[in-house]
Amino acid sequence: MGDPVLATRSLSVRFGGLVAVDDVSLECRRGRLTGLIGPNGAGKTTFIDAVTGFLPNNSKGSVLLEGEEVFGRSPHVLSHAGLTRTWQTLELFDDITVRSNLDVASRRLTVGSALLDYLRPRQRAARVNEVLDLLNLGDIAERQPRELSQGQRKLVGVGRALVAESSKILLLDEPAAGLDKAETDWFGAQLRHLVDQGYTMVLVDHDMGLVLNVCDYIHMLVFGQLTASGTPDDMRNDPEVIAAYLGHSGVEP
Ligand SMILES: Nc1ncnc2c1ncn2[C@@H]1O[C@H](COP(=O)(O)OP(=O)(O)OP(=O)(O)O)[C@@H](O)[C@H]1O
Ligand SMILES: [Mg+2]
Asked: pTM higher than 0.85, yes or no?
């Protein structure tokens, strides 16, 4: 097992009287795909929001990136430090090519770094090509997202997150939502390929089939609390997981 790239210690998020994330301590190890599951409203997105610095006034606890305390830092500082995320709703520019979608995402936001981008366009283009290759999107680089399958569109969304910064860990919030079974299987294989190339990722998803198939280790939240953690085999046999998911997606023990 690799060392933890990301760890939380007693991370909690409160919205008024509601404790959306309740004292969660977990680790996501290097070169692994860590799953985060749980029913609707369990706190999965809130957990990602808090870890990536979007809820400074609602959170408390500790977030360690490669062992360094980063709790309280702003989202852009964290993303620059390699804590990269995607959003639950996917936005692509439909009228420009896949390559341009990645290129736009690779431009940086501060004046200093934008100047650097301006001075080094070739480096940016090289990074875009690298990510296109990594995700096997080279063949469709000059096409527009509207011409692609839903699965390919989702993968372009992952690519946009990867080109933006040099990612130490990528947090994906329901990246396979809306895909049918065949597209989900294809998409899962692409995520697995990325992890096998050395990337570290966290996959939030409702689709237990996908999570059990592609993740190395899985955590489950219920009402904000970490109620189960383990390998896919452990989770298949965990009474808490069976209780939470029977009647949801009908996972069998
Ligand atoms: N900004 C907010 N203000 C108040 N309550 C919120 C806010 N964001 C989330 N919540 C509440 O926190 C709880 C956790 O929500 P969250 O969106 O994190 O769940 P989730 O596990 O991502 O659910 P889903 O699977 O539906 O995406 C829910 O009860 C939700 O209503
Ligand atoms: Mg969510």
From this structure: yes
